[in-house]
Write a structure and sequence with these properties.
- The chain is mainly α.
- It has 14 helices and three strands.
- Strands 1-2-3 form a three-stranded antiparallel β-sheet.
- Strand 2 and strand 3 form a beta hairpin.
- The chain is globular, with a radius of gyration of 21 Å.
Length: 383
């Protein structure tokens, strides 16, 4: 803790400056994707909401809009917060997330064979969402502390590996393989950017990949998903039903789509149409062209995020933005890959599109952190 306080004092001394304006392209892209996401979530969900909530077809839309509004306010407020103060909360946030991951195994709500949620009254959240940003902040702080020592096994591999191992051990029993993969991949990306020797990195990455593949192929929950992924039409009425309906939705859309609101698969054919499989409805209603536009907007947001990371005033800010942007990039890729059956089903939502209030608010809060870093980017010198 003393080392963290010393680090903070040095950073404030070296980078003391007035805040500038937030990065407008990043902010506008975030709001544009969010707006499209809410519209598509409403279109995908109103039939299911009408059936589930006794005629209230706007149930999901109303709740998601409320959480989006709260998230936008949080994003703006956080953008004015000095991101350099976040390193004093990093370790504590990680400890809280670990405690919550333990609690979810004890008191968590089980849904479709997975225990990932903690419900408090009508409010529910996934501790894994907190663990994601906790790992980004904690790893960024540690990398800035260790500096050149990151090239050694003792400092560059051991502490980071232990943290990732603890989180994986707590998340795999849920089971939550997609979240585990997402956190480990983001942590590994930060370690690589932080200066871990390539040889150590490659060795640990190979070992982690082997362990992950062993777990996926030797647990009933995951091995069944792999077999269905290889041939979803082998059991189209049961285990392969969801992915088959997703592929039918994508194929029905064709190049130009059926038109906004005109999806057929959302009428209780495609499960989780407002959540993990909302992108299939995007493809059905907006066609290949509309889906490509959505992916292009995500690509622009990710590229802009990395641009902010490259131009950040200090290493801590650069690492935070790199971690958050990598989280966004990997999560987007995994969701689209699952919906199109490129990879086995992992149960991971599409950022800004899938229904889920707490995850949406956390995503927008993360965008606020990126905007906070952008406010401290040095202005270009004139002349």
């Amino acid at each position: 803790m003393e080392e963290i306080r010393r680090l903070r004092a040095e950073e404030f001394k070296q980078t003391k400056t007035e805040r500038g304006p937030m990065d407008l392209p990043f902010a506008l892209l975030t709001l544009l994707i969010l707006g499209i996401g809410i519209v598509m979530m409403f279109s995908a969900s109103y039939a299911s909401a009408y059936y589930t909530f006794q005629g209230n077809s706007v149930h999901f839309f109303a709740r998601q809009s409320l959480f989006a509004l709260i998230g936008i306010i949080a994003m703006i407020v956080i953008s004015y917060y000095d991101y350099r103060k976040l390193n004093k909360w990093a370790i504590w946030l990680l400890l809280v997330s670990i405690v919550l991951l333990i609690l979810v195994l004890i008191i968590g709500t089980e849904v479709k064979g997975a225990r990932r949620w903690i419900n408090i009254g009508e409010f529910g959240f996934q501790p894994s969402e907190i663990a994601k940003i906790a790992v980004v902040l904690c790893f960024s702080t540690m990398i800035c502390m260790f500096k050149e020592r990151m090239k050694t096994f003792k400092y560059g591999i051991v502490p980071f590996g232990l943290i990732l191992m603890v989180i994986a051990v707590l998340m795999i029993p849920q089971p939550h393989f997609s979240g585990t993969i997402l956190i480990i991949a983001t942590g590994a990306a930060l370690m690589f950017v932080g200066g871990v020797h390539l040889g150590w990195f490659a060795g640990i990455a190979a070992f982690g990949g082997a362990v992950g593949w062993f777990l996926m192929t030797n647990t009933a929950h995951s091995s069944s998903r792999i077999s269905i992924w290889l041939d979803p039409f082998s059991d189209p009425q049961d285990k392969g039903f969801q992915i088959v309906q997703s592929l039918l939705a994508i194929g029905s859309g064709g190049p130009m789509g059926l038109g906004l609101g005109k999806s057929r698969q959302k009428f209780l054919y495609l499960p989780e149409q407002q959540n993990d499989y909302v992108f299939a409805i995007v493809c059905e209603e907006l066609g290949m062209l509309g889906a490509c536009v959505v992916l292009f907007l995500f690509m622009l947001l990710i590229i802009r995020g990395y641009w902010i990371a490259l131009h950040a005033r200090d290493k801590f800010g650069s690492l935070i933005v790199t971690g958050i942007t990598t989280l966004l990039a990997i999560q987007t890729f995994l969701n689209v890959a699952v919906v199109t059956n490129l990879i086995p089903s992992t149960g991971i939502p599409l950022p800004f599109f899938s229904y889920g209030g707490t995850s949406l608010m956390i995503q927008l809060a993360e965008m606020g952190i990126v905007l906070s870093v952008s406010r401290f980017i040095p202005a270009p010198k004139s002349g």
